[in-house]
Design brief:
Strand order of the largest sheet: 1-2
Shape: globular
Distance between the termini: 19 Å
Radius of gyration: 17 Å
Strand content: 5-15%
Largest sheet: 2 strands, antiparallel
Number of domains: 1
Structural class: mainly alpha
Low-confidence stretches: none
Order of helices and strands: EHHHHEHHHH
């Protein structure tokens, strides 16, 4: 697994991306709009495919707000962001499948969990990027995996 690929991204664009996706999933939950789960999943999938530099929400912010209110650049790990967006795509997909199935109630519960997780990520505590760095670090990130590699 490739460890790290640093890329500069406007801080405002990164914040916009995180919060807008969290809001999309919260709106989907509170308004009971399944299509917003699908839309959020598509945005996450495109972000994973196009990488963080060309992710839809980053591109939208960069093409509009960044010109009026420039923000400083932040260095992000492209590989970790791709992993996080891919992981989010899978979770959004699970939500959508559950919501469009006979076990719709479980889907709403899973969406609540996912919206909370996206909010935690929007606050800057992205567990998916931490998981990526944990998995890609030499020897792992917990005492059990470190002992196995020694």
């Amino acid at each position: 697994m490739k460890a790290c690929k640093p890329v500069p991204i406007a801080r405002g664009a990164f914040i916009f991306c995180r919060w807008s996706l969290a809001i999309i999933f919260w709106l989907a939950f509170f308004l009971r709009l399944k299509i917003l789960v699908v839309a959020g999943g598509i945005i996450l999938a495109l972000s994973a495919l196009l990488t963080i530099r060309r992710a839809p929400m980053i591109a939208l912010y960069t093409a509009t707000v960044q010109h009026v209110f420039p923000s400083r650049m932040e260095i992000l790990d492209e590989y970790a962001m791709r992993f996080a967006h891919g992981f989010g795509t899978v979770l959004a997909g699970i939500c959508a499948v559950l919501l469009y199935s006979p076990v719709e109630r479980i889907g709403w519960g899973f969406l609540l969990f996912f919206a909370v997780a996206k909010t935690v990520g929007a606050l800057g505590y992205c567990t998916a990027t931490k998981l990526y760095h944990c998995m890609s670090s030499n020897g792992g990130c917990c005492s059990l995996t470190k002992r196995q590699h020694e």
